[in-house]
Amino acid sequence: MEKELSKAERTRKFIVETTAPIFNKKGYAGTSLSDLTDATGLTKGSIYGNFANKEEVAAAAFDHNSAMIRRQIQDRIQKAGTYYEKLLVYAQVYHSFTRTGTFPEGGCPILNTAVDADDTNPLLKEKAAQAVLRWRKSIENLITAGIQAGEFKPDADADGTALSMIALIEGGIMIAKVTNTPASLDRVLQTVNVLITALKAT
Question: Which molecular function terms from Gene Ontology are attached (predicted)?
Fold first, then answer.
């Protein structure tokens, strides 16, 4: 049974969940204090009574958005029977990001935050970096487990495949968004599938 949240915790949760789509769509610099107060219906004092500053709200919003995607991936990975099927989940989940309402509004928060923060906001840049590293490690672990289970080739390149999968997925999302062509992402994700299939032991 989940413990009941305190009033302060409920308020923080409300602020984060309400402002997360705004930060993901408009970015840190593009999101104003009035955006936050208008969306939440709270005063500046109420927001900054729960968070030290806008940066802290943005960091919490990023955690919320990235966790939404992570939960979807983990749920589907747990249901997949083989390590090959578990890896395919990444392409399947990102394939649906423009087609369902289960993705955070505004698209992939890792891509959005990495581009938005760049070298101008060290905290958000670090948040995006940690998310990429966590993603990379998750893929590497699945490939390593697949090798040990005899599903994948003994010399399969776990690190190289993980990096390539992430680069293809994020690059595909960027191209699809900027050109407004979801089909571009579909083509890139086909390449991700080819990479994963190439891991299989003969």
Answer: DNA binding
What distance lies between CA 142 and its chain's CA centroid? 18
Rounded percentage of the chain residues whose pLDDT exceeds 70: 95
**Which domain CATH number covers 92?**
1.10.357.10
The answer to whether 55 and 164 are in contact (CB under 8 A) is: no
d(CA 139, CA 166): 9
Q: Is residue 105 part of a domain?
A: yes
The number of domains in the chain is 1
What is the C-alpha to C-alpha distance for residues 38 and 41, in angstroms, rounded to an integer? 5
What are the tokens at 95?
A: 């394939």
Q: Domain range for residue 182?
A: 7-197
Most distant CA atoms of the chain, gap in Å: 63
Q: Answer for the pair 119, 97: CB distance below 8 angstroms, yes or no.
A: no
Q: Is a pLDDT exceeding 70 seen at residue 102?
A: no
Q: Is residue 202 part of a domain?
A: no
> What residues are paired with 152 via a beta bridge?
200
Tell me which long-range contacts 69-75 makes (C-beta under 8 A, separation of at least 24): 69/93, 69/103, 69/104, 69/108, 69/109, 72/102
The amino acid present at 121, given as its one-letter code, is N
pTM for the complete prediction?
0.90
Q: Three-state DSSP class for 121?
A: coil
Residue 139 lies inside a defined structural domain of this protein: yes
